[in-house]
């Protein structure tokens, strides 16, 4: 656990970056600090490993005051990931990852072996170990940065806007990778971002900071989206917070309907006035035949309209609504764990479930 007890940071020019911050970060969870520029979120993070010294108050990590150990000893026990990875350009990847274990007294052979294991853990092939940072993409460099932070197996991982410098597609992949790693490693993670979408996607708890270093709200992503503490939080999370909040409601209450289906490769008759869903031999959806389609001796995928997104049965209502809205037929296709067709759901059905939940 990380505990902030009335922590304040005031700089020599009189600027208060963090003002009387009190909160507890639960062990083994991802907690996200989010807010606009100048709100004190990064300063709060950097006080945990004493990259910034608090002006007053107390920070405990695992029950120990951070002022007790020497700063260098403290930092070797806390993983730290920053923007654009911060790798040493003159060292290859294995030596970059092995930095903290070597400083902690590991043998070179043991440290490099650990580095090789971590490359694979973060989804990079072992043969990249001899390359240098300049030979990698931005996303690959960030993965190496995460591997380096994990090298000495620290219980705490601090991440300061680590994915903000990469494009949106790579960023989503890195977020997925972090969530996968957390499932395996169960670290106590404090993650800083200015992006509320990133915060609610990866955080188990979200701390929203306002300008002046004040904590505006601290709670689960669902709580922050559903019940903002004040107008500042409501404006920061955005007017579409209700839509985002669907990510935290499961779809087990949805009633599925059925539509006509056909099989790829089979002869088909002309369609009437309704859309027909095409499936492969494994009953996985491949697209839609539009109303009024001509007969065919053998249905081909090229004859179909793209089907929109698919919704995994039992996952979030947001996924169900996305599937319905993206479908040319106005029906979201629901599939099981193997991707096989189970039924369809309309946007109206999703909204009925939401309204029932609100009434309850």
UniProtKB/TrEMBL annotation:
Keywords: ATP-binding, Nucleotide-binding, Transport. Belongs to the ABC transporter superfamily. Residues 282-311 are annotated as: Disordered. This is ABC-type quaternary amine transporter. InterPro entries: AAA+_ATPase, ABC_transporter-like_ATP-bd, ABC_transporter-like_CS, P-loop_NTPase. PANTHER family: OSMOPROTECTANT IMPORT ATP-BINDING PROTEIN OSMV. Its EC number is 7.6.2.9. It is an enzyme of class 7 (translocase). It comes from the Bacteria. Residues 2-237 form the ABC transporter domain. GO terms for molecular function: ABC-type quaternary ammonium compound transporting activity; ATP binding; ATP hydrolysis activity.
């Amino acid at each position: 656990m990380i505990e902030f007890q009335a922590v304040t940071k005031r700089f020599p020019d009189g600027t208060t970056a963090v003002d009387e911050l009190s909160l507890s970060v639960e062990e083994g969870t991802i907690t996200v600090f989010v807010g606009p520029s100048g709100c004190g979120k990064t300063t709060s993070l950097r006080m945990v490993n004493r990259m910034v010294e608090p002006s007053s108050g107390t920070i405990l990590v695992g029950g120990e005051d951070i002022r007790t150990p020497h700063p260098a000893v403290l930092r070797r026990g806390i993983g730290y990931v920053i923007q654009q990875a911060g790798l040493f350009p003159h060292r290859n990847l294995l030596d970059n990852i092995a930095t903290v274990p070597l400083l902690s007294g590991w043998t070179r052979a043991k440290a490099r072996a650990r580095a090789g294991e971590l490359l694979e853990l973060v989804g990079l092939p072992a043969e990249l170990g001899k390359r240098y940072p300049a030979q990698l993409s931005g996303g690959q460099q960030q993965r190496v940065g995460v591997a380096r932070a994990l090298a000495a197996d620290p219980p705490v991982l601090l991440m300061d806007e680590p994915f903000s410098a990469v494009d949106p597609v790579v960023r989503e992949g890195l977020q997925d990778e972090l969530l996968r790693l957390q499932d395996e490693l169960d670290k106590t993670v404090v993650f800083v971002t200015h992006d509320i979408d990133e915060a609610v996607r990866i955080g188990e708890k979200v701390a929203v900071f306002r300008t002046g270093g004040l904590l505006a709200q601290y709670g689960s992503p669902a709580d922050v989206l559903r019940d903002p503490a004040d107008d500042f939080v409501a404006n920061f999370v955005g007017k579409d917070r209700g839509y985002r909040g669907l990510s935290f409601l499961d779809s087990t209450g949805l009633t599925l309907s059925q539509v006509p289906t056909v099989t790829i490769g089979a002869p088909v008759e002309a369609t009437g006035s309704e859309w027909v869903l095409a499936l492969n031999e494994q009953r996985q959806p491949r697209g839609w035949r539009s109303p009024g389609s001509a007969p065919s001796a053998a249905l081909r995928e090229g004859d179909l309209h793209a089907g929109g997104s698919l919704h995994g049965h039992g996952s979030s209502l947001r996924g169900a609504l996305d599937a319905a809205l993206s479908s040319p037929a106005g029906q979201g296709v629901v599939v099981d764990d193997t991707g096989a067709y189970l039924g369809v759901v309309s946007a109206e059905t999703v909204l009925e479930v939401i309204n029932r939940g609100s009434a309850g």
